[in-house]
Amino acid sequence: MLSISSISKKIRKTNILNNFTLPPIYEGEIVTILGKNGAGKSTFLKELIDLIGKKKPVAKINSSVVSYDDVGYLPQNYSIPLSVTVLDLLITTLNLHNKSLLTKKNSLEHSIKILKQIDITHLANKYCNQLSGGESQLVGLALALINNPKIIILDEPTSALDLNNQLLLMHFVHDYIKKHNIYGLMVVHDINLAIQFSDKVAIIKNGELYDYGNLNIIDPALIKNVFDVNSKIIVTEKNLFYLLINKIYMKNQYLNFKSHERRNRKIKNENY
Ligand SMILES: Nc1ncnc2c1ncn2[C@@H]1O[C@H](COP(=O)(O)OP(=O)(O)OP(=O)(O)O)[C@@H](O)[C@H]1O
User: Where is the secretion signal located (predicted)?
Assistant: First the structure.
């Protein structure tokens, strides 16, 4: 069981996180943090990583204090401004705490294996500072996993990915966490991806935990309260559920946002 202490953060006298904490996360569980822009999601993940790095007992797995080496972290908008190849960087990361002058046995094989698993072997010999945004994100995932972490923390891991790669990455992360029975904590903006690939969701509002629980806490009332958007739940034939948000459901925001266009197109009388 992963327990995380409450975290507060002030930046220039403004409270960004107010004793933000999560209930215990269980082995093999994937928890996704949802909330609007500026709610404090990335600040929470960064602060958590920062405190773990300082060896503070901010997180524990059962009764053992979590150390930086236990965590694989993919930050938001990840890019690698280094003139080294992806393969070299993976091998270096794998040997970060290796005190020997020789690289660990099977470093090359292990690095190639993770590239294969994420289906990015074609990037092996590319220079990191020449990768596209999406490629950097996929390489960032490989770097986060290379040292077999007990906890995977991903901040908007699909933000730069095309539709196919979004699904591939989420499937891969989901299966990896289940297979290795580790802990997954992530932030995603696409609620439908969160619904498909998470076990639980944590809703953050104004730096505080607003709600937490199984996927069934996601309903139009919660979405309205947190994002100020109208929505509808659609249940498919396989009992999967999706949140439908379109211009009809988000009515008020759409009208405000598009008010000037509305005037120009004389759609005042349209029946929204
Ligand atoms: N270094 C900083 N200096 C000043 N304000 C900051 C700093 N870092 C974050 N903030 C503020 O803290 C708040 C929370 O930011 P954070 O990046 O955690 O939001 P978020 O929920 O991850 O948003 P998004 O969905 O847009 O990524 C925002 O209002 C942001 O402007």
Answer: none
- Looking from the CA of residue 156, the nearest atom of ligand 1 is 27
- Homologous superfamily (CATH) of 2-228 is P-loop containing nucleotide triphosphate hydrolases (3.40.50.300)
Question: In the block, which residue shows the tokens 């099977």?
Answer: 106
Q: What is the CA radius of gyration of the chain?
A: 21
Q: Is 11 in the pocket of ligand 1 (CB under 6 A)?
A: yes
Closest Cα to atom 27, ligand 1: which residue? Answer: 37
- Which sequence spans correspond to the domains of the chain? 2-228, 230-272
Give 156 Cα–ligand 1 centroid separation in angstroms: 14
Ligand 1 centroid to residue 102 C-alpha, Å: 42
Ligand 1 neighbour 202 (Cβ under 6 A): no
* Pairing, β 7-11 against β 14-20: antiparallel
Task: Quote the ligand 1 centre to 85 CA distance (angstroms).
Answer: 32
> Structure tokens of 152?
């995977």
- Residue-by-residue pLDDT tens, the chain, 272 positions: 999 999 999 998 899 999 999 999 999 999 999 999 999 999 999 999 999 978 778 999 998 999 989 999 999 999 999 999 999 999 999 988 766 666 777 889 999 999 999 999 999 999 999 999 999 999 999 999 999 999 999 999 999 999 999 999 999 999 999 999 999 999 999 999 999 999 999 999 999 999 999 998 998 899 989 998 888 888 887 777 788 876 655 555 444 444 444 444 443 343 33
The rounded Å distance from CA 42 to ligand 1 centre is: 7
Cβ contact 224:231 at 8 Å: yes
